[in-house]
Structures are given as C-alpha cells and as structure tokens.
Amino acid sequence: MTRGFSLIELLVVVAIMAVLASIGFPLTELAHRRSQEEELRRSLREIRSGLDAYKRAADAGLVARPVGGSGYPPTLQALVDGVPNAQLPMAGKLFFLRRLPRDPMAPGTIANAADTWGLRSYDSSFADPQAGRDVFDVYSRSAGLGLDGSPYREW
C-alpha cells in the first residue's frame, strides 16, 4: 500500500487555502488604508501645530511681521528653514518643524513634500481654499474619501 495524498485531497486543501486568502486580502487592504489615514491625521496635526506656533511667535513679536501681514508664514518651508528671532537676533533662528511631512495620499511621483499639500491663505474661505501671501492652513489634495465617508480634502 502506498502512502500519500490523493488528488482530491490536495484539491480540497488548495480550495480551503484560497478561501482563507480571499478573506485575508481585503483585511490587509483595510489595515493599510487605516494606517494611511492615521498618518494623514498625524501630518495635518503636525503642520497645523507648526503654523499655530509661528502665529503665536509673530503675535509675541519674535517673528518680524510685514505691514498688513496676517502673522502666518509665507511658505510651508519657512517652518522648517526657520526665521530670525526679531527680539534677539544673536540667538539665532526660530524653527517650528524639524521636517515637513508629505501627504500620504499624494502620488509618489511628487518629490517635494511641500508640493503634496493644498494651501489656504488667511484671505481665502474654507469652502474655496486658495493659496496667497501666507499659509493659514493646509489640506490634502486627494479626491478620495475616508473610511468614514468624508473627503480627505475636508480633514
């Protein structure tokens, strides 16, 4: 008598493995999307905290504000590059971010992290964000919807 598996037994095992794999793949896609959304939330929070810190420093007189300026940075890169301390010039620059995070929903073909974000100036409305003389807020340029059904652009 020979020992081994019959062709039927092998086909049953392969069919069971296919069913288990078909259950697992959507779960891994969902987990990946959740991690991307969490990274988007974290990145937005980090940039917005830097923008708020810059505004507080401008209101306190630590950052030179142009006449008629809002007190927000002219570019996102200014948060990383730093600005001279207006009250203590010998103290060096004030930095608000170590690095600029990129939008995790943006295509990988965009090399510069600042180019992955949509910019809203102080003068533009929330409903129709436009870039301008300063950076009041950032948003994702992705047209996708989050797992909760809200557009990424509105986060």
Pick out its properties.
two-stranded antiparallel ribbon, mainly alpha, elongated, 155 residues, single chain, 8% strand
Detail the topology: elements first, then pairings.
Layout: H1 7-59, H2 77-81, E1 83-84, E2 93-94, E3 117-120, E4 137-140
Antiparallel strand pairs: 1-2, 3-4
Could you please describe the fold and organization of this structure?
- The protein is built from two helices and four strands, in the order ααββββ.
- It is mostly helical and 155 residues long.
- The protein has one domain (7-154).
- The strands form two sheets. A two-stranded antiparallel ribbon has the order 1-2. It has a two-stranded antiparallel ribbon with strand order 3-4.
- β1 and β2 (93-94) form a beta hairpin.
- The mean pLDDT is 92.
